[in-house]
Amino acid sequence: FTSTRDSMESSEPSPVLRGVKKTILVLSGKGGVGKSTVACQLALAHQQAGMKVGVLDIDLCGPSMPRILGCEGEGVHQSGSGWSPIYVEDNLSIMSAGFLLPSPDAAVIWRGPKKNGLIKQLLRDVDWGNLDYLLVDTPPGTSDEHLSIVQYMAGTGIDGAVIVTTPQEISLQDVRKEVNFCRKVDMPVLGIVENMSMFICPKCKVSSTILPATTGGAAKLASDIGVEVVARLPLDPIVGKACDEGGDIFADHADSEVAKAYNGLVRSITAKLA
Description:
The chain is of the alpha/beta class. Helices cover about 35% and strands about 20% of the residues. Strands 5-6-2-7-1-8-9-12 form an 8-stranded mixed β-sheet, with helices on both faces. It has a two-stranded antiparallel ribbon with strand order 3-4. A two-stranded antiparallel ribbon has the order 10-11. A hairpin with a 6-residue loop joins strand 10 (about 200) and strand 11. Helix 5 (about 170-185) packs parallel to helix 6 (about 215-225). It is globular and about 55 Å long.
Protein backbone atom coordinates (compact mmCIF):
# COMPACT_ATOMS: atom_id res chain seq x y z
CA PHE A 1 0.00 0.00 0.00
CA THR A 2 1.54 3.31 -1.07
CA SER A 3 -1.40 5.68 -1.28
CA THR A 4 -1.91 8.64 1.02
CA ARG A 5 -5.12 10.11 2.35
CA ASP A 6 -5.20 12.57 -0.54
CA SER A 7 -5.56 9.74 -3.05
CA MET A 8 -8.45 8.09 -1.20
CA GLU A 9 -12.05 8.61 -2.05
CA SER A 10 -13.12 11.79 -0.28
CA SER A 11 -15.78 11.66 2.40
CA GLU A 12 -18.08 14.40 3.54
CA PRO A 13 -18.01 15.06 7.30
CA SER A 14 -20.63 13.00 9.08
CA PRO A 15 -23.21 15.21 10.83
CA VAL A 16 -23.21 12.92 13.89
CA LEU A 17 -19.47 13.54 14.42
CA ARG A 18 -19.65 17.33 14.34
CA GLY A 19 -20.04 17.45 18.12
CA VAL A 20 -16.87 15.39 18.67
CA LYS A 21 -13.88 17.55 19.61
CA LYS A 22 -11.08 14.96 19.42
CA THR A 23 -10.93 11.51 17.83
CA ILE A 24 -8.21 9.03 18.84
CA LEU A 25 -7.58 5.62 17.30
CA VAL A 26 -6.21 2.91 19.59
CA LEU A 27 -4.10 0.58 17.44
CA SER A 28 -1.92 -2.47 17.86
CA GLY A 29 0.20 -4.36 15.39
CA LYS A 30 -0.30 -7.64 17.23
CA GLY A 31 -3.40 -9.14 18.80
CA GLY A 32 -3.32 -10.02 22.49
CA VAL A 33 -1.27 -7.04 23.69
CA GLY A 34 -4.16 -5.46 25.61
CA LYS A 35 -5.35 -2.90 23.06
CA SER A 36 -9.02 -3.09 24.05
CA THR A 37 -8.08 -3.05 27.74
CA VAL A 38 -6.00 0.10 27.21
CA ALA A 39 -8.77 1.75 25.18
CA CYS A 40 -11.32 1.01 27.91
CA GLN A 41 -9.13 2.22 30.77
CA LEU A 42 -8.27 5.36 28.79
CA ALA A 43 -11.98 6.05 28.39
CA LEU A 44 -12.66 5.50 32.10
CA ALA A 45 -9.71 7.69 33.09
CA HIS A 46 -10.91 10.52 30.83
CA GLN A 47 -14.43 10.09 32.20
CA GLN A 48 -13.18 10.23 35.81
CA ALA A 49 -11.40 13.48 34.89
CA GLY A 50 -14.79 15.00 34.02
CA MET A 51 -14.65 14.74 30.24
CA LYS A 52 -17.43 13.46 27.97
CA VAL A 53 -16.14 10.34 26.28
CA GLY A 54 -17.43 7.95 23.64
CA VAL A 55 -15.97 4.53 22.82
CA LEU A 56 -16.48 3.10 19.33
CA ASP A 57 -15.62 -0.60 19.16
CA ILE A 58 -15.04 -1.62 15.55
CA ASP A 59 -13.04 -4.74 16.26
CA LEU A 60 -15.72 -6.69 14.41
CA CYS A 61 -14.35 -10.19 14.97
CA GLY A 62 -13.58 -9.61 18.65
CA PRO A 63 -15.86 -6.88 20.03
CA SER A 64 -14.95 -7.03 23.73
CA MET A 65 -15.95 -3.54 24.88
CA PRO A 66 -19.51 -4.46 25.98
CA ARG A 67 -18.08 -7.03 28.41
CA ILE A 68 -15.23 -4.80 29.61
CA LEU A 69 -17.57 -1.86 30.30
CA GLY A 70 -20.25 -4.02 31.90
CA CYS A 71 -23.03 -3.49 29.35
CA GLU A 72 -23.12 -6.82 27.56
CA GLY A 73 -26.58 -7.73 26.26
CA GLU A 74 -27.83 -4.15 25.89
CA GLY A 75 -29.92 -3.32 22.83
CA VAL A 76 -29.26 -0.53 20.35
CA HIS A 77 -32.09 1.93 19.75
CA GLN A 78 -32.58 4.00 16.61
CA SER A 79 -33.98 7.52 16.49
CA GLY A 80 -34.46 10.09 13.78
CA SER A 81 -30.87 11.27 14.26
CA GLY A 82 -29.30 7.78 14.11
CA TRP A 83 -28.33 4.95 16.42
CA SER A 84 -28.19 5.88 20.10
CA PRO A 85 -25.04 4.72 21.92
CA ILE A 86 -25.28 2.82 25.20
CA TYR A 87 -24.56 5.02 28.22
CA VAL A 88 -22.35 3.45 30.88
CA GLU A 89 -22.26 6.72 32.83
CA ASP A 90 -23.73 10.15 32.12
CA ASN A 91 -20.46 11.16 30.45
CA LEU A 92 -19.37 7.78 29.04
CA SER A 93 -21.08 6.12 26.07
CA ILE A 94 -20.25 3.16 23.86
CA MET A 95 -21.23 1.68 20.52
CA SER A 96 -19.98 -1.75 19.52
CA ALA A 97 -20.53 -4.29 16.79
CA GLY A 98 -21.07 -6.67 19.71
CA PHE A 99 -24.48 -5.11 20.38
CA LEU A 100 -25.60 -6.09 16.87
CA LEU A 101 -24.77 -9.79 17.16
CA PRO A 102 -27.41 -12.33 18.26
CA SER A 103 -25.22 -13.59 21.14
CA PRO A 104 -21.73 -13.04 22.61
CA ASP A 105 -20.68 -16.37 21.06
CA ALA A 106 -21.81 -15.47 17.53
CA ALA A 107 -18.96 -15.38 14.99
CA VAL A 108 -18.66 -12.66 12.34
CA ILE A 109 -17.96 -14.62 9.15
CA TRP A 110 -17.98 -11.79 6.63
CA ARG A 111 -15.92 -10.79 3.63
CA GLY A 112 -14.35 -7.34 3.33
CA PRO A 113 -17.19 -5.40 1.67
CA LYS A 114 -19.74 -6.37 4.33
CA LYS A 115 -17.28 -5.53 7.13
CA ASN A 116 -16.54 -2.17 5.54
CA GLY A 117 -20.24 -1.46 5.19
CA LEU A 118 -20.80 -1.97 8.91
CA ILE A 119 -17.78 0.16 9.80
CA LYS A 120 -19.14 2.94 7.60
CA GLN A 121 -22.52 2.66 9.30
CA LEU A 122 -20.98 2.74 12.79
CA LEU A 123 -18.93 5.82 11.90
CA ARG A 124 -21.75 7.72 10.21
CA ASP A 125 -24.98 6.70 11.94
CA VAL A 126 -24.24 6.81 15.69
CA ASP A 127 -25.57 9.99 17.31
CA TRP A 128 -22.85 10.74 19.87
CA GLY A 129 -23.99 14.23 20.74
CA ASN A 130 -21.23 16.45 22.14
CA LEU A 131 -18.03 14.65 23.15
CA ASP A 132 -14.62 15.79 24.32
CA TYR A 133 -13.07 12.52 23.09
CA LEU A 134 -14.10 9.67 20.83
CA LEU A 135 -11.84 6.65 21.33
CA VAL A 136 -11.94 4.10 18.50
CA ASP A 137 -10.93 0.55 19.39
CA THR A 138 -9.71 -0.97 16.12
CA PRO A 139 -8.80 -4.52 15.06
CA PRO A 140 -5.12 -5.48 15.34
CA GLY A 141 -2.90 -5.06 12.30
CA THR A 142 -3.08 -2.87 9.20
CA SER A 143 -5.99 -4.31 7.30
CA ASP A 144 -8.91 -3.35 5.11
CA GLU A 145 -10.80 -2.10 8.16
CA HIS A 146 -8.11 0.44 8.99
CA LEU A 147 -8.12 1.87 5.48
CA SER A 148 -11.91 2.17 5.70
CA ILE A 149 -11.71 4.04 9.00
CA VAL A 150 -9.22 6.55 7.61
CA GLN A 151 -11.25 6.99 4.43
CA TYR A 152 -14.63 7.41 6.12
CA MET A 153 -13.23 9.86 8.68
CA ALA A 154 -11.30 11.93 6.17
CA GLY A 155 -13.91 14.70 6.36
CA THR A 156 -13.88 15.05 10.15
CA GLY A 157 -10.26 14.09 10.69
CA ILE A 158 -8.46 11.81 13.13
CA ASP A 159 -6.48 13.73 15.74
CA GLY A 160 -4.02 10.95 16.44
CA ALA A 161 -3.30 7.33 17.17
CA VAL A 162 -2.04 5.56 20.27
CA ILE A 163 -0.22 2.30 19.51
CA VAL A 164 -0.22 -0.44 22.14
CA THR A 165 2.56 -3.02 22.45
CA THR A 166 4.21 -5.33 24.95
CA PRO A 167 7.99 -5.31 25.57
CA GLN A 168 8.76 -8.39 23.45
CA GLU A 169 10.28 -8.10 19.99
CA ILE A 170 7.52 -10.30 18.55
CA SER A 171 5.12 -7.45 19.31
CA LEU A 172 7.50 -4.57 18.57
CA GLN A 173 8.19 -5.73 15.01
CA ASP A 174 4.51 -5.23 14.19
CA VAL A 175 4.49 -1.79 15.83
CA ARG A 176 6.98 -0.67 13.20
CA LYS A 177 4.48 -1.65 10.52
CA GLU A 178 1.68 0.16 12.36
CA VAL A 179 3.74 3.37 12.58
CA ASN A 180 4.56 3.13 8.87
CA PHE A 181 0.85 2.72 8.11
CA CYS A 182 0.02 5.85 10.13
CA ARG A 183 2.67 7.84 8.32
CA LYS A 184 1.50 6.72 4.88
CA VAL A 185 -2.07 7.87 5.59
CA ASP A 186 -0.92 11.10 7.32
CA MET A 187 -2.25 10.09 10.74
CA PRO A 188 -0.33 11.61 13.68
CA VAL A 189 1.10 9.07 16.13
CA LEU A 190 0.60 10.44 19.64
CA GLY A 191 2.85 7.79 21.13
CA ILE A 192 3.51 4.19 22.03
CA VAL A 193 2.02 2.56 25.13
CA GLU A 194 4.09 -0.30 26.52
CA ASN A 195 1.49 -2.49 28.21
CA MET A 196 2.39 -5.23 30.73
CA SER A 197 5.74 -3.47 31.04
CA MET A 198 6.40 -4.89 34.50
CA PHE A 199 4.62 -6.75 37.30
CA ILE A 200 4.30 -5.00 40.65
CA CYS A 201 3.61 -7.44 43.48
CA PRO A 202 0.43 -6.33 45.30
CA LYS A 203 1.89 -7.42 48.66
CA CYS A 204 5.56 -6.44 48.68
CA LYS A 205 5.38 -3.81 45.86
CA VAL A 206 8.55 -5.19 44.24
CA SER A 207 8.64 -4.76 40.46
CA SER A 208 9.44 -7.84 38.37
CA THR A 209 9.85 -8.46 34.64
CA ILE A 210 7.37 -10.94 33.19
CA LEU A 211 7.76 -10.21 29.47
CA PRO A 212 11.46 -9.59 28.78
CA ALA A 213 12.50 -6.69 26.55
CA THR A 214 15.17 -8.68 24.74
CA THR A 215 15.74 -5.97 22.11
CA GLY A 216 15.33 -2.93 24.34
CA GLY A 217 11.55 -2.78 24.54
CA ALA A 218 9.40 0.16 23.53
CA ALA A 219 12.06 2.68 24.63
CA LYS A 220 14.61 1.40 22.09
CA LEU A 221 11.98 1.17 19.36
CA ALA A 222 10.75 4.70 20.06
CA SER A 223 14.30 6.03 19.83
CA ASP A 224 14.85 4.21 16.52
CA ILE A 225 11.66 5.42 14.80
CA GLY A 226 11.23 8.85 16.41
CA VAL A 227 8.02 8.19 18.36
CA GLU A 228 7.57 8.88 22.07
CA VAL A 229 6.70 6.27 24.68
CA VAL A 230 3.77 7.97 26.42
CA ALA A 231 3.19 5.30 29.09
CA ARG A 232 4.63 2.12 30.61
CA LEU A 233 1.70 0.28 32.16
CA PRO A 234 2.19 -2.42 34.81
CA LEU A 235 0.63 -5.86 34.62
CA ASP A 236 -1.88 -5.88 37.48
CA PRO A 237 -4.52 -8.53 38.30
CA ILE A 238 -7.03 -5.83 39.29
CA VAL A 239 -7.23 -4.73 35.64
CA GLY A 240 -7.98 -8.25 34.40
CA LYS A 241 -10.63 -8.71 37.09
CA ALA A 242 -12.23 -5.35 36.30
CA CYS A 243 -12.38 -6.18 32.57
CA ASP A 244 -14.07 -9.53 33.23
CA GLU A 245 -16.60 -8.03 35.65
CA GLY A 246 -17.20 -4.63 34.05
CA GLY A 247 -15.51 -2.88 36.96
CA ASP A 248 -13.79 0.50 37.26
CA ILE A 249 -10.24 0.54 38.64
CA PHE A 250 -10.35 4.33 39.02
CA ALA A 251 -13.34 4.16 41.34
CA ASP A 252 -12.28 1.00 43.19
CA HIS A 253 -8.46 1.25 43.18
CA ALA A 254 -7.70 4.92 42.66
CA ASP A 255 -4.39 4.72 44.56
CA SER A 256 -3.04 1.72 42.63
CA GLU A 257 0.08 2.08 40.51
CA VAL A 258 -1.79 1.03 37.37
CA ALA A 259 -4.49 3.69 37.89
CA LYS A 260 -1.78 6.32 38.40
CA ALA A 261 -0.04 5.17 35.20
CA TYR A 262 -3.26 5.52 33.20
CA ASN A 263 -3.90 8.97 34.65
CA GLY A 264 -0.39 9.94 33.54
CA LEU A 265 -1.22 8.65 30.06
CA VAL A 266 -4.35 10.84 29.98
CA ARG A 267 -2.28 13.88 30.93
CA SER A 268 0.23 13.13 28.17
CA ILE A 269 -2.46 12.74 25.52
CA THR A 270 -4.31 15.86 26.68
CA ALA A 271 -1.10 17.90 26.49
CA LYS A 272 -0.30 16.62 22.99
CA LEU A 273 -3.76 17.52 21.69
CA ALA A 274 -4.04 20.89 23.45
